[in-house]
């Protein structure tokens, strides 16, 4: 049976790929949108356009346009003014449902008790607000998989990765909620992306979806090269979905993750207890501190990206 998945996102170039990946591999229960790479209005329109491009049939609920406490912070330098620059996307063919994402998440979690995986690939605001409203929510979820945080460097500050940086208070609520959590952080995702050759392969396929994604990725890779010196277009968000298709591609550890809310230089940092992880050791280590997440340490990046490309090429 396919994994039941709800994707909470802020498209965003890598979010767009994550949506396509999710619709192909999972029982996509719904899509929710949040502030992040662009305004809520833009991320919602972008998500609907990607769904129109690939004929993805799932309800979409728009969510929170602001973090719980902080001020919104966009990533237009990476994703462009619209949040998804680089290609002409079809106009949306459906409207968001009337229900707010926070209520939709609660309803879906209840309806699919014990089965639903929520993938958070934008700031964690919607789920945090839902947990605050319905404290039993965490116990209804099968798992939460998060693209966010890092065991090493951040991208927005030396310590903080974008999704957690945007709403650290929300991330802290989610990490503390008690549901099983996977953390796929920037330490893994920045190494895992499309090369120029991959983008060319998508372009040359002659397929509409892959061709459009190729144009988007060319824009995004250019920004990633210029701003972060990366040589791949990092597929941050899709990494969080990989464990539900080919878990062997990820090496992880069960440990403690705490979100820094107050540090002068470290607000938004995910403090991961890796004291027991020695380079080169194959020993399974249990952290001394309270375990609340399964934290990715590495990925078989090439195989992972090949799987993503094959998935994109499966679309017409
Ligand atoms: C995360 O930030 C966003 O720009 C990406 O979509 C991804 O979710 C990477 O730090
Ligand atoms: Ca994202």
Total domain count: 1
What is the CA–CA distance across the termini? Answer: 24 Å
Extended strand count: 12
- Overall pLDDT: 96
Oligomer: single chain
Structural class: alpha/beta
- The CATH architecture comes to Alpha-Beta Complex
CATH names the topology as Inosine-uridine Nucleoside N-ribohydrolase, Chain A
Tally the helices: 13
C-alpha geometry: globular
Unreliable spans are none
The SSE order reads EHEHEHHEHHEHHEHEHHEHEEEEH
Bound molecules: beta-D-ribofuranose, calcium ion
Features:
two-stranded antiparallel sheet; binds calcium ion; 38% helix; single chain; alpha/beta; Inosine-uridine Nucleoside N-ribohydrolase, Chain A; 316 residues; globular; eight-stranded mixed sheet; binds beta-D-ribofuranose
Question: Concise description?
Answer:
Helix content is 38%, strand content 17%. The chain is α/β, with parallel strands linked by helices and 316 residues long. Strand 1 (4-9), helix 1 and strand 2 (27-33) form a beta-alpha-beta unit.
Element layout with pairings:
Blueprint: E1 4-9, H1 13-25, E2 27-33, H2 40-53, E3 60-62, H3 76-79, H4 101-111, E4 116-120, H5 125-133, H6 137-140, E5 143-147, H7 162-166, H8 168-175, E6 181-184, H9 186-189, E7 193-194, H10 196-204, H11 208-228, E8 233-234, H12 236-239, E9 250-255, E10 257-259, E11 270-272, E12 293-299, H13 301-313
Parallel strand pairs: 1-2, 1-4, 2-3, 4-5, 5-6, 6-12
Antiparallel strand pairs: 7-8, 9-12, 10-11
The chain binds beta-D-ribofuranose (BDR) and calcium ion (CA).
């Amino acid at each position: 049976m396919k994994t039941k998945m709800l994707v909470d996102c802020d498209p965003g170039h890598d979010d767009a790929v994550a949506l396509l990946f999710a619709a192909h591999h999972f029982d996509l229960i719904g899509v929710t949108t949040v502030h992040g790479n662009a305004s809520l209005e833009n991320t919602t329109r972008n998500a609907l356009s990607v769904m129109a491009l690939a004929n993805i049939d799932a309800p979409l609920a728009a969510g929170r346009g602001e973090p719980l406490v902080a001020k919104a912070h966009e990533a237009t330098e990476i994703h462009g003014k619209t949040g998804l620059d680089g290609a002409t996307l079809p106009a949306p063919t459906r409207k968001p449902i009337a229900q707010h994402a926070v209520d939709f998440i609660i309803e879906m979690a209840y309806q699919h008790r014990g089965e639903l995986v929520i993938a958070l690939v934008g700031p964690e605001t919607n789920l945090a607000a839902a947990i605050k409203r319905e404290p039993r929510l965490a116990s209804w979820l099968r798992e939460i998989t998060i693209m966010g945080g890092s065991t090493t460097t951040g991208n927005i500050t030396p310590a903080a990765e974008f999704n957690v940086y945007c709403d650290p208070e929300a991330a802290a609520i989610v990490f503390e909620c008690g549901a099983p959590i996977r953390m796929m952080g920037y330490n893994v995702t920045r190494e895992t992306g499309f090369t120029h050759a991959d983008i060319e392969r998508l372009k040359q396929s002659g397929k509409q979806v892959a061709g459009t994604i190729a144009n988007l990725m060319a824009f995004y890779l250019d920004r990633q090269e210029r701003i972060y010196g990366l040589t791949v277009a990092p597929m941050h968000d899709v990494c969080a979905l990989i464990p539900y298709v080919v878990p062997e591609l990820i090496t992880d550890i069960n440990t403690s993750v705490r979100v820094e809310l107050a540090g002068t230089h470290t607000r938004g940092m995910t403090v991961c207890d890796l004291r027991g992880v020695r380079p080169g050791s194959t020993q399974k280590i249990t952290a001394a501190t309270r375990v609340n997440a399964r934290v990715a340490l590495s990925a078989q990046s090439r195989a992972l990206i090949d799987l993503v490309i094959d998935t994109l090429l499966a679309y017409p």
